[in-house]
Fold:
Amino acid sequence: MRVRITFTKQNALRYIGHLDLHSLWERAMRRAELPLAYSQGFHPQPKISLAAALPLGFSSRGEVLDVRLKEDIPIENISKQLTVSLPEDIKIIKVEEVAENLPALQTQVLSAAYDVKLTEPVETSELTRKVEAVMKSESILRERRGKSYDLRPLIEMISVITEPNGTVWLKMTLAAREGATGRPEEVLSELGIESETTYVERTRLIFQG
Amino acid sequence: MLTPEQIENKLNRILLRVQKPGRYVGGELNSIRKDWAQAKTKVAFVFPDIYDIGVSNVGLKVLYDQINQREDALAERAYSPWMDMEDLMRQHEIPLYALESKQPLACFDLIGFSLPYETLYTNTLNVLDLSGIPIHSLDRDESHPFIIAGGHAATNPEPMYKFIDAFVIGEGEEVIHDIVNVIQKGKKKEGKWSRLEVLKELAKIDGVYVPQFYETTYMEDGTVAYTEPTIPEAPKLVNKRIVAKLPPPPTKFIVPNIEVVHNRVSVEIMRGCTRGCRFCQAGMITRPVRERSVEEVVEAADAAIRSSGFEELALLSLSSSDYTYVKDLVDAISKRFEGRKLTVSLPSLRIESVSVDLMEKLKQHRSGGFTLAPEAATEKMRRIINKFIPDEDIINTTNDIYARGWTTIKLYFMIGHPSETIEDVQAIADLCKRVLAEGRKVAGWKVKLHAGVSTFVPKPQTPFQWVASDTRENILEKQALLKREFYKDKNIKLSWTKPEDTLVESWLSRGDRRMADVIYTAWKNGAKFDAWDEGRKFETWMQAFAEHGLDHAFYTHRQRRTDEVFPWEHIGAALRKNFLFQDFRMSLEGEIRVDCRLNCFACGILPTFANLRRENPGEGWKCPDVKSPAPKTNKANIELPVVGD
Structure:
């Protein structure tokens, strides 16, 4: 069976990279004694795939993975067994069975939503003006690893939120398709905010269909 | 002092600028986070090398569990930050903190350093400095934690005597509780003890050495005349502590969230060794041999694999082949873990075909290579070091390994043994080539060989404690020979130890109290991570020796007088000096001593621990039973051996 798990990644685990997260899940599933399906070949690997890499330092309330099991087991058992075998900074939000024949998980991601908390005070009107300018612009040419690209089409939405107590933060939705991924730190740099003064959390991944 | 919240906030600003930030955040499965306010005694265990190496250390894991099982205490962990992190921590004024609570190390009651090897000394000073704790023991007051250290390097604690408040000599499982109890008693509000009073109480515990209560007097030639206690509470000889029976092995291994050197479960199957290889400090100082039962090992391994999810299991001991029930163990392990995709390693196997049978049972794949340690390549040298294996046994075994499908064999050798000549080194090259040539006859051209050639360092409490370390020039010449010999053959890979590493380890191993200032100065001038290419500062060490008017050759390249009093003479490994000396003399004659399971050579263990053995007779120890009746005194159960008899 093919199982989709939505989970959080927070606190200490913000500093764990994509490959390490993959091994962490492998071990957690082994501890939970789930009947993992393995790939063929000389070095069989369990069939676990993570939807989209989360940049180091970001926390998340909505990461997604698919895992294939060689036998069917009740969904509620999976979640119960995994909960006790995960480190405390990963919590399971949802476990669901998905059709075996769906395309690979990574190809299904369209975009990702982020909350950006600011650790240094900012001028709200100035920030709002910059956000509007970004949203109104036709294109924003930038460089990433020596290659020029247009950031603008990768931005779906940015909004400035002001709390009743005056705290200001940002919400944004950026493209997260294969080969077309908007990065929060690049948007922040366009807005004149240093990423060291922010706390970014991915809130959810948005899928096709 | 910063609070954990302040430390975390500061960390969040720097962690993305260092390599592998996962080293510095904790949060691992099976790490234990207790309520800070509830614990009466807080202990931090430090492995003073990077997280990647320290986190899998089994010794500290045992102690971490021992303390956390107590209701009145907690134990947390810290490691040396790598250089990039250290720079940022100093720049942002972040003190070294424990991974579980993020409390600064300076807020703990007790800090325990693991010192398995001497090249961690400068890092130990660095950890104290990063924690804001005075480096010198005598500069600490009631506001500072007690600094203790243990591990094999504590066999000669003297080079570190100025920095460590108390050393644990021998095994830590029981004594750590005695230490925590003293510290707890001393902290009670009514009549709180002074630091000095606590240290005096610690000095009374068997196996605890408090160096500030001892003084060394030197002879005119610079050697030690004697080291004596300066207060009545301190014993003349501090003998090592041992446990009569190995306690249950840890089963809740910390599972790192990043890749580290050993992502594995380790179960100690046996402690001690009866082989008596003369170069091997571990084999001498971890006696007597005590084995765990097959059942205990298998159950612990199973529980630990289940709770960690690791893919690798290491069955640890100094000499697996000597474990009495090794065949049963291998059968039981392969049966229990069948089909569970587990790699099992069984290190330190004897060079014989039985070993190949054992490995065959444990491994589905032969990709890992097969490791054997002849240590020397001529029969003459093997007699000198007391690891006697005829050449033919080596060839038969390696042929067998290649024939059964392993393509790579790793052979460990040492150069710089006492009485070694260049011909003995040439023999290493010849033997490796012969192993490969014979291997080709049985398994074809795909066979490979890896020769790991390290350099011998004479260690305290071994039959070779009297001998000189080889000189830098000799080591370089011997290594050049091997490089020249192996250069042409792409199927032989050679690895070696840099002579500078060997020399640093050598003077630290047999140093006296005067070495403490050298260590301090070397560290002040930038020496740290002495076992790392990035850290080694040989010239800095040379300058430090010069600054204190000492000659490193006095410690490294000097053959000791037969009647010399060693700097570690007041620290007992329960080995009679005369036993070691006799063995040294035998090595000069090329005489071997057999496995002491076959014949007790009266090393000193039984007289020292006669009562313990009397209370624990039978198979548990591999020493003979003690038949004499217990003495009728109610004095402490330690009978001191006569030193230097």
About this structure: The interface with chain A takes residues 12-13, 15-16, 21-22, 24-29, 255, 257-259, 306-311, 341 of chain B (CB under 8 Å).
